[in-house]
Structure formats: C-alpha cells, structure tokens
Specification:
By secondary structure, the chain is of the alpha+beta class. It is built from one helix and four strands, in the order E-E-E-E-H. A hairpin with a 6-residue loop joins strand 3 and strand 4 (39-41). This is DUF7836 domain-containing protein.
Amino acid sequence: MVEAFVRLLCPECKKDWETKPSELPGPRNNFSCPGCHATRRLAEFMRTEHDLKTLKQLQ
C-alpha cells in the first residue's frame, strides 16, 4: 500500500513541507507552523486544492 502525503505551505513565513494526513488535525482545526508558529486553520496551510482533498479523504 502506498502512503499518502500532503504538502503544506505556511502563509506567513513560506516554509514548505510534507506530512502524512494522519498526523494532522481536521482541516477546520487550528494548526501552527513549526517554523514561525503562526496559527491558522489547517486548510489555509494546504499547498493546493488537491492536498486539501487528500486530507479530507484520508481523515
């Protein structure tokens, strides 16, 4: 089985990274950037619409 990853991009500091959807809260929950600690809804950190759809499908 292939593991899925979602790509994230911080709207504040522009840090980008990948992680497993299972390691993240729901898309409407608050999430903090590990780089600058900016806090927003997780959906705002999704790099693309496809990443957001993947997150929603696998949670």
